[in-house]
Amino acid sequence: MASESNAEVTRVAAAGPWRLAWRRLRRNRVALAFFGLFVLIVAFVLAAPLWASDVAHTGPNKTHTLEKIEVDGEQREVVNREGKPIGPVWLGADGKFFLGADGRLGRDEMVRLMYGGRISLLIGILSALITT
């Protein structure tokens, strides 16, 4: 009987640090929820080239100051004569200028946000690796 309890102690002690960490993580619902959110953000920013080329048909630095787009069947200027950019058009322009345009050059805010997120993740990952 004593040998059985020693075997149980040995089995529990033999669990590696990764297994113990996984057990603790599974019990923490908030951490799992935010890990899921992080995975969604990573997928969002990694899809930047796809969104830019297939949906928005523009790059992060392409200017649209003199262009017009069709929003819900109506022609609108990306940047009007006073310099005011178009606001969020959501799905009214088939994904173009989803979050609007910036005020100076009429660049697509959604595309710039996605590419900026890629740079931010790259800096964060590299700094974590250097720190480690």
Structure report:
By secondary structure, the chain is mainly alpha-helical. 55% of the residues lie in helices and 6% in strands. The chain is built from 5 helices and 2 strands. Strand 1 and strand 2 form a beta hairpin. Helix 4 packs antiparallel against helix 5. The longest helix has 23 residues, at 109-131. The mean pLDDT is 89.
Using brief descriptors, characterize the structure shown.
132 residues; mainly alpha; 5 helices; 2 strands; 55% helix; 6% strand
Sheet with most strands: strand arrangement: 1-2
- How many DSSP helices? 5
Structure summary, number of beta strands: 2
Q: How confident overall, as mean pLDDT?
A: 89
Give a summary of the structure in a few sentences:
This protein has 132 residues and is mostly helical. It contains 5 helices and 2 strands; from the N terminus they run H-H-H-H-E-E-H.
Would you spell out the secondary-structure blueprint of this structure?
Layout (H helix, E strand, L loop, with lengths): L1 H12 L3 H11 L1 H18 L1 H9 L11 E4 L2 E4 L31 H23 L1
Antiparallel strand pairs: 1-2
Helix pairs in contact: 3-5, 4-5
